[in-house]
């Protein structure tokens, strides 16, 4: 596990958006993402050291599909990042100071179990869901027990 994290390479994720300007503004304002390459149809962001690409699309999903996890309706289609414990708490404080609306407010899941984690969800302007989580101990990230 430790070697995996030390040798982890940045991932790339492409996702659909309705409006590039609104998307650009939101990811910069709330998540401090830096801009990479961009065109009239897409924009790359530095998302905590990973490359995510917002692609302009007019396709809309009318159905929000969720799974019940620890009594919360979790959007099935989402992406996110696992932050260090302190970084996660710092981000929550920063977002609260910017009056962001959380899709799922910061909370603890699986409390008292080996998979205990803190998490919250945001929804971007194009109805993409992002999860931000942290574990007190990184060895719990891939634990088979929760």
Main beta-sheet annotation: 4 strands, mixed
Let me know the number of strands. Answer: 10
**Termini Cα gap:** 17 Å
Might you state the CATH topology name? 2,3-Dihydroxybiphenyl 1,2-Dioxygenase, domain 1
Oligomeric status: single chain
Structural class: alpha+beta
Strand order of the largest sheet: 1-4-3-2
What's the helix and strand layout?
Elements lengths: L1 H5 L5 E6 L2 H12 L2 E5 L3 E6 L2 E7 L9 E4 L2 E4 L2 E5 L2 H13 L6 E6 L7 E7 L5 E6 L12
Parallel strand pairs: 1-4, 7-10
Antiparallel strand pairs: 2-3, 3-4, 5-6, 8-9, 9-10
Q: How would you describe this structure to a colleague?
A:
This protein is an alpha+beta fold. It has one domain: Roll (2,3-Dihydroxybiphenyl 1,2-Dioxygenase, domain 1), CATH 3.10.180.10. Helix content is 21%, strand content 38%. It is built from three helices and ten strands. The protein has a four-stranded mixed sheet, with helices on one face. A four-stranded mixed sheet has the order 7-10-9-8, with helices on one face. The protein has a two-stranded antiparallel sheet with strand order 5-6. It starts with a helix and ends in a 12-residue tail after the last strand. The model has no long low-confidence stretch (mean pLDDT 89).
């Amino acid at each position: 596990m430790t070697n995996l994290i030390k040798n982890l390479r940045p991932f790339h994720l492409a996702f659909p958006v309705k409006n590039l300007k609104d998307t650009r503004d939101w990811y910069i304002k709330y998540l401090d993402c830096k801009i990479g390459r961009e065109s009239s149809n897409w924009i790359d962001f530095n998302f905590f050291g990973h490359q995510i690409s917002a692609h302009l699309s007019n396709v809309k999903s009318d159905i929000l599909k969720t799974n019940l996890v620890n009594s919360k309706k979790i959007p099935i289609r989402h992406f996110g990042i696992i932050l260090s414990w302190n970084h996660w708490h710092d981000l929550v404080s920063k977002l609260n100071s910017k009056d962001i609306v959380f899709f799922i407010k910061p909370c603890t899941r699986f409390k008292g179990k080996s998979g205990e984690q803190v998490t919250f969800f945001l929804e971007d302007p194009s109805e993409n869901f992002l999860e931000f989580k942290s574990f007190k101990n990184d060895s719990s990230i891939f634990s088979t027990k929760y």
